[in-house]
Structure prediction request, 231 residues.
Amino acid sequence: MPVVIITGASKGLGRALAEALAARGWDLVLDARTAEVLKETAAALAGHGTRVTALPGDVTDPAHRSELVAAAWQLGGVDLLVNNASALGAEPLARLEGLPLDGLRRALEVNVVAALGLVQEALPLLRASEAGTVITVSSDAAAEAYETWGGYGASKAALDHLAAVLGEEEPRLRVWAVDPGDMATDLYAAAVPDDADPRPEPASVVPAFLRLLDERPASGRYGAPSLLEGR
Prediction:
């Protein structure tokens, strides 16, 4: 069975994607910082009959990243790496004039440095896979200027560029930066706590990710809404 590593997998988009892949028979290596929630997620997903390894930890910890890749190797390798774990930089979001620099450093460390670190750790196994794939979860804030989203958007823009360069440097892999669009997640609620407008559930955008895996288009940046419209 193919093996996937998903960071930030205990809830939201990470969990929804993990569930969809488990239903397709994928074996899972899941990461999240909250051990109890991750344990509950792993138990639920194991009901699909696939192997699930849940490793709580912080993706900014090099030892934890090594542990994730080692767990995938024990399951057979790495066919797909999903860098989904994200940090906002400030909760709620703040204008640049008041953005805590330590918060910006945290966003860059989680969203960019740790994501690249995990790619570097997993590259030998990804190269060995017949369908090695990296997905980095992006945001429309990476491409558009929204007030208060500067720090988070800058980190996602940097991640987009790393993904684009990786796609050039690793032509045998597929490397997709995917903007999932608006979703009802804890991350968004923390970013803009006063926004009560309804938003789609993360599971509603998972078919866009599955379409990429099924059709395997060229490496590049994709928007989930466009992929969903083209179904």
In short: The two ends are 26 Å apart (CA to CA).
